[in-house]
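User: I'm curious whether this sequence folds into something compact or stays loose and floppy. Could you predict its structure so I can see for myself?
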Amino acid sequence: MRAVQLVKFGEPREALRYTDLPDPAPGPGDVLVKIEAAGVCGRDLVVRKGAFPHVKPPVVPGHEGVGKVVEVGPGVERDVVGNRVFLSAIYDGTCDYCRRGFENLCRNAELLGESRNGTYAEYVVLPARFAHPFHGVDPRVAVVATCPLATAVYTLRHVDVEGRRVLVVGAGGTGVYIAQLAKVRGGEVYISTRSPEKAAVLRQLGLEVAAEGDKDFDVVIDTVGSPTLERSLKLARRAGSVVVIGNVTGERASLSPALVILRQLKVLGSMAFRPWDIYEALDLLKRGLIKPLYAEYRLQDAARAHEDMERGVVVGRAVLIP
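Assistant: Here's the prediction. I'll summarize afterward.
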Protein backbone atom coordinates (compact mmCIF):
# COMPACT_ATOMS: atom_id res chain seq x y z
CA MET A 1 0.00 0.00 0.00
CA ARG A 2 1.01 3.63 -0.39
CA ALA A 3 1.48 5.51 2.86
CA VAL A 4 3.26 8.43 4.45
CA GLN A 5 5.78 7.42 7.11
CA LEU A 6 7.32 9.52 9.83
CA VAL A 7 10.93 8.40 9.37
CA LYS A 8 12.53 10.87 11.79
CA PHE A 9 11.65 13.98 13.76
CA GLY A 10 12.07 17.34 12.09
CA GLU A 11 10.80 19.54 9.29
CA PRO A 12 7.95 18.18 7.12
CA ARG A 13 9.89 17.34 3.95
CA GLU A 14 12.67 15.65 5.93
CA ALA A 15 10.46 13.80 8.40
CA LEU A 16 7.56 12.61 6.19
CA ARG A 17 8.24 10.11 3.42
CA TYR A 18 5.67 8.93 0.86
CA THR A 19 6.48 5.26 0.35
CA ASP A 20 5.31 1.70 -0.28
CA LEU A 21 4.56 -0.47 2.76
CA PRO A 22 3.30 -4.06 3.00
CA ASP A 23 -0.49 -4.36 2.89
CA PRO A 24 -1.71 -4.83 6.48
CA ALA A 25 -3.81 -7.90 7.34
CA PRO A 26 -6.44 -8.04 10.09
CA GLY A 27 -5.73 -10.37 13.00
CA PRO A 28 -8.26 -11.87 15.43
CA GLY A 29 -10.90 -9.28 16.33
CA ASP A 30 -9.58 -6.78 13.79
CA VAL A 31 -10.95 -5.04 10.71
CA LEU A 32 -9.10 -3.71 7.68
CA VAL A 33 -10.31 -0.25 6.71
CA LYS A 34 -9.68 1.35 3.32
CA ILE A 35 -9.14 5.02 4.14
CA GLU A 36 -11.22 7.51 2.15
CA ALA A 37 -10.14 10.67 3.99
CA ALA A 38 -7.61 11.39 6.73
CA GLY A 39 -7.44 14.58 8.75
CA VAL A 40 -4.23 16.37 9.64
CA CYS A 41 -4.44 17.40 13.30
CA GLY A 42 -2.30 19.98 15.04
CA ARG A 43 -1.19 17.12 17.28
CA ASP A 44 0.33 15.47 14.20
CA LEU A 45 2.63 18.46 13.83
CA VAL A 46 3.72 18.18 17.45
CA VAL A 47 4.31 14.43 16.99
CA ARG A 48 6.43 15.14 13.90
CA LYS A 49 8.61 17.53 15.89
CA GLY A 50 9.39 14.83 18.49
CA ALA A 51 7.54 16.29 21.48
CA PHE A 52 6.12 12.93 22.62
CA PRO A 53 8.74 10.46 23.91
CA HIS A 54 6.51 7.42 23.34
CA VAL A 55 6.49 7.96 19.55
CA LYS A 56 9.26 5.96 17.87
CA PRO A 57 9.84 6.37 14.11
CA PRO A 58 9.22 4.84 11.70
CA VAL A 59 5.46 5.04 12.10
CA VAL A 60 2.55 6.08 9.88
CA PRO A 61 1.08 9.29 11.41
CA GLY A 62 -2.55 10.30 11.69
CA HIS A 63 -5.39 9.52 14.10
CA GLU A 64 -8.29 11.06 12.15
CA GLY A 65 -9.77 8.76 9.54
CA VAL A 66 -12.92 7.73 7.69
CA GLY A 67 -13.18 4.75 5.38
CA LYS A 68 -14.85 1.45 4.54
CA VAL A 69 -14.33 -1.94 6.12
CA VAL A 70 -12.98 -4.22 3.37
CA GLU A 71 -11.84 -7.27 5.33
CA VAL A 72 -12.29 -8.78 8.80
CA GLY A 73 -10.16 -11.01 10.97
CA PRO A 74 -11.18 -14.16 12.86
CA GLY A 75 -13.97 -13.56 15.32
CA VAL A 76 -15.51 -10.59 13.51
CA GLU A 77 -18.89 -10.93 11.78
CA ARG A 78 -18.56 -10.55 8.02
CA ASP A 79 -21.69 -8.40 7.78
CA VAL A 80 -19.59 -5.37 8.83
CA VAL A 81 -17.74 -5.53 5.49
CA GLY A 82 -18.82 -2.52 3.43
CA ASN A 83 -19.66 -0.38 6.45
CA ARG A 84 -18.43 3.19 6.31
CA VAL A 85 -16.73 3.89 9.63
CA PHE A 86 -14.85 6.51 11.57
CA LEU A 87 -11.89 5.44 13.68
CA SER A 88 -11.27 6.23 17.34
CA ALA A 89 -8.44 5.79 19.79
CA ILE A 90 -8.13 2.31 21.30
CA TYR A 91 -9.22 2.20 24.94
CA ASP A 92 -8.93 -0.73 27.33
CA GLY A 93 -12.46 -0.15 28.69
CA THR A 94 -11.52 -1.56 32.10
CA CYS A 95 -9.37 1.06 33.85
CA ASP A 96 -10.87 3.32 36.50
CA TYR A 97 -11.22 6.22 34.03
CA CYS A 98 -12.95 4.13 31.36
CA ARG A 99 -15.37 2.74 33.93
CA ARG A 100 -16.31 6.34 34.86
CA GLY A 101 -16.97 7.30 31.22
CA PHE A 102 -13.63 9.02 30.64
CA GLU A 103 -12.30 6.81 27.87
CA ASN A 104 -10.37 9.83 26.61
CA LEU A 105 -8.28 9.57 29.81
CA CYS A 106 -7.73 5.81 29.58
CA ARG A 107 -4.54 4.71 31.35
CA ASN A 108 -3.69 2.27 28.55
CA ALA A 109 -4.95 4.06 25.44
CA GLU A 110 -3.33 3.56 22.06
CA LEU A 111 -3.56 6.42 19.61
CA LEU A 112 -3.38 5.72 15.92
CA GLY A 113 -0.36 7.38 14.37
CA GLU A 114 1.71 7.21 17.54
CA SER A 115 1.96 3.80 19.16
CA ARG A 116 0.67 2.06 16.02
CA ASN A 117 0.35 2.93 12.34
CA GLY A 118 -2.27 5.55 11.60
CA THR A 119 -4.39 7.04 8.86
CA TYR A 120 -1.88 8.64 6.45
CA ALA A 121 -2.22 5.47 4.39
CA GLU A 122 -4.46 3.56 2.00
CA TYR A 123 -5.32 1.00 4.69
CA VAL A 124 -5.43 0.76 8.48
CA VAL A 125 -5.92 -2.23 10.77
CA LEU A 126 -7.47 -1.83 14.21
CA PRO A 127 -9.78 -3.72 16.59
CA ALA A 128 -13.31 -3.90 15.19
CA ARG A 129 -14.94 -2.18 18.16
CA PHE A 130 -13.00 1.01 17.43
CA ALA A 131 -14.30 1.27 13.87
CA HIS A 132 -17.67 2.97 14.38
CA PRO A 133 -20.32 2.80 11.63
CA PHE A 134 -22.14 5.88 10.37
CA HIS A 135 -23.95 7.06 7.25
CA GLY A 136 -25.31 10.18 5.63
CA VAL A 137 -22.17 12.35 5.63
CA ASP A 138 -19.56 12.62 2.88
CA PRO A 139 -16.20 11.16 4.03
CA ARG A 140 -14.33 14.43 3.42
CA VAL A 141 -16.86 16.22 5.64
CA ALA A 142 -17.16 13.41 8.17
CA VAL A 143 -13.44 13.45 8.91
CA VAL A 144 -14.01 16.92 10.38
CA ALA A 145 -16.15 15.25 13.05
CA THR A 146 -13.49 12.70 13.99
CA CYS A 147 -11.41 15.14 16.02
CA PRO A 148 -11.90 18.91 15.63
CA LEU A 149 -15.68 19.06 15.90
CA ALA A 150 -15.83 16.21 18.42
CA THR A 151 -13.24 18.09 20.49
CA ALA A 152 -15.51 21.15 20.31
CA VAL A 153 -18.46 19.08 21.50
CA TYR A 154 -16.51 17.71 24.46
CA THR A 155 -14.92 21.06 25.33
CA LEU A 156 -18.30 22.77 25.59
CA ARG A 157 -19.54 20.09 27.97
CA HIS A 158 -17.31 21.73 30.60
CA VAL A 159 -18.70 25.28 30.42
CA ASP A 160 -22.06 26.95 29.89
CA VAL A 161 -21.76 29.52 27.10
CA GLU A 162 -25.42 30.49 26.63
CA GLY A 163 -25.81 34.25 26.95
CA ARG A 164 -22.13 34.71 27.79
CA ARG A 165 -19.23 36.52 26.14
CA VAL A 166 -16.94 33.82 24.76
CA LEU A 167 -13.47 34.22 23.28
CA VAL A 168 -11.88 31.44 21.27
CA VAL A 169 -8.13 32.00 21.08
CA GLY A 170 -6.80 30.72 17.77
CA ALA A 171 -8.65 30.12 14.51
CA GLY A 172 -6.96 26.83 13.65
CA GLY A 173 -8.53 23.50 12.79
CA THR A 174 -10.29 23.20 16.15
CA GLY A 175 -10.91 26.83 17.04
CA VAL A 176 -13.21 27.48 14.08
CA TYR A 177 -15.46 24.61 15.18
CA ILE A 178 -15.50 25.57 18.86
CA ALA A 179 -16.50 29.09 17.85
CA GLN A 180 -19.28 27.87 15.55
CA LEU A 181 -20.63 25.47 18.18
CA ALA A 182 -20.46 28.07 20.94
CA LYS A 183 -22.61 30.33 18.76
CA VAL A 184 -25.08 27.48 18.16
CA ARG A 185 -25.22 27.06 21.95
CA GLY A 186 -26.21 30.71 22.41
CA GLY A 187 -22.92 32.41 23.18
CA GLU A 188 -21.81 35.89 22.10
CA VAL A 189 -18.73 34.54 20.37
CA TYR A 190 -15.45 36.20 19.41
CA ILE A 191 -12.46 34.49 17.85
CA SER A 192 -8.90 35.72 17.55
CA THR A 193 -6.72 35.41 14.47
CA ARG A 194 -3.79 37.29 12.94
CA SER A 195 -4.76 36.19 9.41
CA PRO A 196 -6.85 38.66 7.35
CA GLU A 197 -7.90 35.76 5.08
CA LYS A 198 -9.17 33.71 8.00
CA ALA A 199 -10.86 36.78 9.48
CA ALA A 200 -12.86 37.24 6.26
CA VAL A 201 -14.04 33.60 6.36
CA LEU A 202 -14.96 33.83 10.03
CA ARG A 203 -17.06 36.93 9.44
CA GLN A 204 -18.90 35.11 6.66
CA LEU A 205 -19.81 32.51 9.31
CA GLY A 206 -21.31 35.28 11.43
CA LEU A 207 -18.51 35.23 13.99
CA GLU A 208 -17.01 38.32 15.54
CA VAL A 209 -13.25 38.64 15.11
CA ALA A 210 -11.72 39.85 18.36
CA ALA A 211 -10.14 43.29 18.19
CA GLU A 212 -7.20 44.64 20.14
CA GLY A 213 -8.51 45.84 23.47
CA ASP A 214 -11.43 43.38 23.71
CA LYS A 215 -11.47 41.87 27.21
CA ASP A 216 -13.69 40.83 30.11
CA PHE A 217 -14.87 37.57 28.58
CA ASP A 218 -16.93 35.17 30.69
CA VAL A 219 -15.34 32.18 28.98
CA VAL A 220 -11.97 32.02 27.21
CA ILE A 221 -11.12 28.84 25.30
CA ASP A 222 -7.41 28.65 24.44
CA THR A 223 -6.65 26.38 21.48
CA VAL A 224 -3.00 27.44 21.22
CA GLY A 225 -1.32 26.87 24.59
CA SER A 226 2.02 28.18 25.82
CA PRO A 227 2.33 31.25 23.56
CA THR A 228 -1.12 32.61 24.49
CA LEU A 229 -2.03 31.17 27.89
CA GLU A 230 -1.01 34.12 30.07
CA ARG A 231 -2.84 36.54 27.79
CA SER A 232 -5.93 34.30 27.87
CA LEU A 233 -5.97 34.52 31.66
CA LYS A 234 -5.76 38.32 31.45
CA LEU A 235 -8.65 38.52 28.98
CA ALA A 236 -11.04 36.58 31.24
CA ARG A 237 -13.24 38.64 33.52
CA ARG A 238 -13.19 38.13 37.28
CA ALA A 239 -14.82 34.83 38.26
CA GLY A 240 -14.59 33.77 34.61
CA SER A 241 -13.49 30.45 33.14
CA VAL A 242 -10.47 29.61 30.99
CA VAL A 243 -10.51 26.27 29.18
CA VAL A 244 -7.17 25.06 27.80
CA ILE A 245 -7.27 22.56 24.95
CA GLY A 246 -4.25 23.54 22.83
CA ASN A 247 -0.58 22.65 23.01
CA VAL A 248 0.59 23.51 19.51
CA THR A 249 4.26 24.05 20.38
CA GLY A 250 4.63 21.37 23.04
CA GLU A 251 6.46 23.91 25.24
CA ARG A 252 5.97 24.76 28.90
CA ALA A 253 4.11 27.94 29.80
CA SER A 254 5.23 30.51 32.36
CA LEU A 255 2.56 32.47 34.21
CA SER A 256 1.83 34.19 37.49
CA PRO A 257 -0.48 32.42 39.97
CA ALA A 258 -1.69 35.89 40.96
CA LEU A 259 -3.65 36.08 37.68
CA VAL A 260 -5.67 33.07 38.74
CA ILE A 261 -6.00 34.04 42.38
CA LEU A 262 -6.85 37.73 42.12
CA ARG A 263 -9.33 37.19 39.29
CA GLN A 264 -10.74 34.06 40.98
CA LEU A 265 -10.57 32.21 37.68
CA LYS A 266 -11.60 28.66 36.96
CA VAL A 267 -8.89 27.10 34.79
CA LEU A 268 -9.89 23.81 33.15
CA GLY A 269 -8.17 21.39 30.86
CA SER A 270 -10.12 19.46 28.25
CA MET A 271 -8.63 16.34 26.70
CA ALA A 272 -9.85 15.37 23.22
CA PHE A 273 -13.24 13.58 23.17
CA ARG A 274 -15.07 10.25 23.52
CA PRO A 275 -16.42 8.19 20.58
CA TRP A 276 -20.03 9.25 21.23
CA ASP A 277 -18.96 12.89 20.94
CA ILE A 278 -18.14 12.08 17.31
CA TYR A 279 -21.70 10.88 16.75
CA GLU A 280 -23.00 14.18 18.12
CA ALA A 281 -20.55 16.01 15.85
CA LEU A 282 -21.82 14.05 12.83
CA ASP A 283 -25.40 14.94 13.76
CA LEU A 284 -24.49 18.64 13.89
CA LEU A 285 -23.05 18.35 10.37
CA LYS A 286 -26.10 16.45 9.08
CA ARG A 287 -28.42 19.14 10.43
CA GLY A 288 -26.40 21.91 8.83
CA LEU A 289 -25.71 23.61 12.16
CA ILE A 290 -21.95 23.58 11.60
CA LYS A 291 -20.23 24.54 8.35
CA PRO A 292 -17.39 22.14 7.52
CA LEU A 293 -14.21 23.95 6.55
CA TYR A 294 -11.37 21.95 5.02
CA ALA A 295 -8.72 21.94 2.31
CA GLU A 296 -8.04 18.78 0.30
CA TYR A 297 -4.55 17.41 -0.35
CA ARG A 298 -3.35 14.24 -2.04
CA LEU A 299 -1.82 11.72 0.34
CA GLN A 300 1.60 12.24 -1.23
CA ASP A 301 1.33 15.95 -0.38
CA ALA A 302 1.16 15.40 3.39
CA ALA A 303 4.39 17.34 3.94
CA ARG A 304 2.93 20.34 2.11
CA ALA A 305 -0.23 20.07 4.23
CA HIS A 306 1.94 20.24 7.37
CA GLU A 307 3.78 23.26 5.99
CA ASP A 308 0.54 25.04 5.13
CA MET A 309 -0.85 24.38 8.59
CA GLU A 310 2.29 25.76 10.21
CA ARG A 311 2.03 28.87 8.03
CA GLY A 312 -1.57 29.31 9.15
CA VAL A 313 -3.06 29.30 5.64
CA VAL A 314 -5.41 26.33 6.11
CA VAL A 315 -8.91 27.35 7.14
CA GLY A 316 -10.41 24.49 9.13
CA ARG A 317 -8.89 21.08 8.46
CA ALA A 318 -6.29 19.79 6.03
CA VAL A 319 -7.71 16.53 4.65
CA LEU A 320 -5.57 13.91 2.88
CA ILE A 321 -7.21 11.85 0.13
CA PRO A 322 -5.40 8.57 -0.65
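Summary: The radius of gyration is 19 Å. The longest helix spans residues 139-155.
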